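lol ok so funny story. i was supposed to be doing the assay writeup but got distracted and ended up predicting the structure for this chain instead. priorities right. anyway since i did it might as well share w the group, maybe its usefull for someone
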Amino acid sequence: MLPQEDRLAVLLGIEVPSSDPVFLSIVFGVHIPLGVACVIAGATAMLSRKGRGRHSKAGKVYFWCLTALFASTTVLSLMRWAEDYPLFLFGAAAFACALFGRTALRMKWPYWTRLHLTGMGFSYALLLAAFYVDNGRQLPVWKDLPPVIYWLLPVAVGVALIGRALLTHPLRGLGDPRADAREDGST
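and the output, tada:
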């Protein structure tokens, strides 16, 4: 018989890989609400007019919720490292991408708009990939797909959308040193 913390729990029709009360408290009390907040805030930032206002407010909420989500991912992964280390790696990569994108914006690096868009976009794609890798086998439609799709589809869609935005978005050239030099009259 498995120890209490290694038993599978089923709550609200969702399989949870541990019945440990601390694990369940973190998953349902912290991790899931933060994940939902990240998805909503990230989508709001992506779909809002860029600049100050809704976009930047939603972006800040996304970044700070993602930071807390990565912290909860770290704790949950440490509790079940052998099974959950890939989720830790996804979380670390998503957080690193978001930190990169945020830093490019705040520091106004050359090509900062492209770097910001790329970093934040990849962080969102990795966030979704982590969700599907962990839960895809329980979701309608997704459960019928090969598990490799859980890893690849969110990232492939994210790469396509990021590429499209980098090629067509009207603000993509902000922070381009060549364009800035032309506007200043210098070469």
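The helical segments are 21-47, 54-79, 81-107, 112-135, 147-168, 177-184. The longest strand covers residues 9-11.
back to the writeup now i swear
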